Amino acid sequence: MLRMANLVMRLLLLMGLFVVLFSYAMFQGGFVSWFLFYATLPFLIYYLCFIFYPVSDWKVDRILPITSIQAGDSIRVRLVMKRRLPMPFSYLMIQECLPSSLNFRFVVHQWSKMLSNQSLYQRKETVKKLAFPLFSRTVYYEYQVNDVPRGVHTFTQVKLSITDLFGFVSKTMVVPVESVLLIRPRYLEGDVHWPSRLQQLGEASTSMIQAESSNVVTGAREYVPGDRVSSIHWKATAKTETLMTKEFDQEQHNDGVVALAGSHGGVGFEWNLTVAYGLIQNLTDKGHKLDFCHLAEPGYYLSTEHRLADLHRYLTVLPTGQSEGDISPILHTQASHLKTASFLIVFTDQLTIELAEYMKELARYVKVIRLYWTKAEPQQSEIEKQQRQHLQSFGVIVDAMTEREVAQNRWVVRI
């Protein structure tokens, strides 16, 4: 409303100026008066056209990279502004409205600094450009965003501001342009160390699993010549009066579980997510069967019957900037899965009392539990340190990942 009133006032000012100059020429009647009138008439007409020029004439397209991008890479975004009417402007201010998910930075080689100083993790960046279109119908603007974080980044709008040749009238419009950019988790090279008590599991888990797994009857089918007589399903045969054979499904078994807990908004959580993803992919490529569990609202459990692509998709869309909230329901829901694991690796940036009590309960069922607590040493609270000592007294191994450990070139996970 205020902007419309401003335009009306400027329109009245132009009309008043036109009336004054025309009246002066009519009453004066000399060469100078008419010269001034005709000399200013093109400018008055230009301003009149500019006031009624529809800013909605501009159409904006955003072109995002189509290749697969992982966290920490740089992206180049191209904006294409088009219009039908070639109205001359003195300048065009283009402002890209970056999504709030890009307020974070993922710098691969500065984990230690960012863990100590969380402000380095924040990004304060404004994407603007001053263009001079004049009579051009198409304007291009390309910019680059470095150290993009993992996640789903939704671009929603672009802000355009135009002004006349002398800066007398200016107009602003927000153009809705929605684009979605997916940034997958970064894969970091690392090492896995197996202790002597689990060395056999680490080297030949697949053969052990196949030897120990049992067959479970999942249904019945018609008998086919060559089926074993011991596999005949006698109950189904009696019901259908047709010779039926048992159908078996190989029972699923996992070497262990990798769990992720803690706050979603911070350097520690992103480091834990990256290492957990790299650990699962590392061991999966070697033939191990690992399950993944996310101990946070709303909870997520990926069993060995799913593909690694499902985990990749989940970690990509996992939002940032959220706290873990109340995880009590999640912990009790996932208890049946975690208690049957051969070992449990937990990554967290918050060593809460609730999580510690749950780990103590699991220690009664799981042979090996190792918890990686990622937090800068000056930021560790006394309560968290007490919980660490308490967990170790119950046989839970707690490794503190401070800025010194994170500064290493390769991550090392001991199982």
Key terms:
Rossmann fold, elongated, 12 helices, 4 domains, six-stranded mixed beta sheet, Immunoglobulin-like, alpha/beta, 415 residues, four-stranded antiparallel beta sheet, single chain, 17 strands
Question: What does this entry look like structurally?
Answer:
This protein has 415 residues and is of the alpha/beta class. The protein has four domains: 2-51; 55-183, Immunoglobulins (Immunoglobulin-like, Sandwich), CATH 2.60.40.10; 190-208 and 253-414, Rossmann fold (3-Layer(aba) Sandwich), CATH 3.40.50; 222-248, no CATH class. Helices cover 34% and strands 27% of the residues. It has helices spanning 2-28, 31-51, 111-116, 199-212, 234-240, 267-285, 308-317, 328-333, 335-338, 353-362, 382-393, 403-406; strands at residues 59-63, 75-82, 91-96, 127-131, 138-145, 151-163, 170-183, 190-193, 215-222, 244-250, 256-260, 290-294, 300-302, 343-348, 368-374, 397-401, 411-414. The protein has a six-stranded mixed sheet. Strands 4-3-6-7 form a four-stranded antiparallel sheet. It has a three-stranded antiparallel sheet with strand order 1-2-5, with no helix packed on it. Helix 1 packs antiparallel against helix 2 (31-51) and helix 6 runs antiparallel to helix 7 (308-317). The longest helix is centred in the first third of the chain and has 27 residues, at 2-28. The chain is elongated. The two termini are 65 Å apart.
